[in-house]
Design goal:
Layout: H1 3-74, H2 84-115, H3 121-133
Length: 145
């Protein structure tokens, strides 16, 4: 047998002795370890229940209040002005009223111009009908220029 073989054999023998020793030690201390484990569990369970009650009644409300306060600080301020849609609708109404005013003003100017002379009295009717239908009384379309 070589030197390396003897070292391997010694290592195997040492490992077997350690395994047997650990096994017999585990068999000896297992009942004592189980008993002490039960004692520790019996001691720890009431303390865990007490800690749970403290978290539930003491810490949780504080954490909840803290988180609510932080949420209030983080939340962006409410928009106090008009919304964009409302603003656009109001601008549309103003534009429509302005356009109606322009049309009414133009009709009024045309009426005022034609009322000044008697010969154009019938043209006033034609001018009014032209603004509505685009044609005069005869059905002919005439350009005002």
């Amino acid at each position: 047998m070589t030197r390396f073989g003897r070292v391997q054999e010694a290592a195997r023998h040492g490992a077997e002795v350690c395994r047997q020793s650990a096994s017999s030690t585990a068999e000896r201390i297992a009942p004592v370890a189980e008993e002490r484990l039960m004692l520790v569990r019996g001691w720890g369970a009431p303390r865990l229940r007490q800690a749970a009650r403290y978290v539930e009644s003491g810490i949780a409300p504080r954490v909840s209040t803290f988180l609510s306060d932080v949420a209030g600080r983080v939340e962006p301020p409410k928009r106090s002005g008009l919304g964009r849609g409302t603003l656009m609708a109001m601008m549309g109404v103003v534009a429509a009223v302005g356009a109606a005013g322009v049309v009414a003003t133009r009709r009024g100017v045309i009426r005022d111009m034609t009322k000044g002379s008697g010969e154009h009295a019938e043209d006033a009717t034609s001018a009014d009908s032209m603004t509505v239908s685009g044609a005069d009384v005869d059905g002919q379309v005439h350009s005002p220029h």
